[in-house]
Amino acid sequence: MGGGDGSERTLTYTNAAEETRSAQTRKREPRDVYVVSCQVLQRALQPLLDKLPELASCSFMDYGLHCTPGEMASELQVVLDAAVKPGIVLLGYGLCGNGLVGLRAGRHTLVIPRTDDCIAILMGSYQKYLEDFQRHPGTYYLSEGWLESGFHP
Questions:
Q1: Tag placement on the chain: N or C end, fewer CB within 10 Å?
Q2: What b/e readout covers 113-126, taking b as 16+ CB neighbours within 10 angstroms?
Q3: Which of 50, 45, 52, 53 shows the shortest CA–CA distance to 92?
């Protein structure tokens, strides 16, 4: 295409599918990882956190939030909102009496275990928890973290 002044302009047509594939194959920038967890899980998580180079921050929240699940989401939200750089937030909480209701991811990606409480997290999965519960109905579980806390869950 002539520009009238002897210069040429080139029009480039791109294929959206090719661009998409190209974007998918580009190396993604590592994202910061934030951990927000109940203090009950601190002893169990600490050895893993020490090996996580992407860890930007880790907050272990007070045991007592379980006693007031209506306040849990707002307390956790303060921590999420304080993390300015978008990242992956690993929550060390189960549903905890619906304590996570209302929690907003905002600029982050939230990773929440699909479990009712920390006992299933410590057992390895909700399925293992259910199997154990069926074998031993009525069992009241206490973790090392709960015993250390001095709180009654």
A1: N
A2: bebebbbbbbbeeb
A3: 45
Please tell me the pTM assigned to this model. 0.73
Instruction: Report helix, strand or coil for 143.
Output: coil
Tokens at 113, concatenated: 């275990």
- Please give the structure tokens belonging to residue 124: 């390895």
- Alpha helix (H) residue ranges in 50-117: 69-82
Pair of tokens at residue 96: 């905890």
Secondary structure of residue 70 in the 3-state scheme = helix
Take residue 9 and report the two structure tokens written for it: 């302009």
- Tens of pLDDT, residue by residue over 20-67, are 454 455 456 678 899 999 998 998 898 888 888 888 889 999 888 888
Q: How far is CA 101 from the centre of its chain?
A: 15
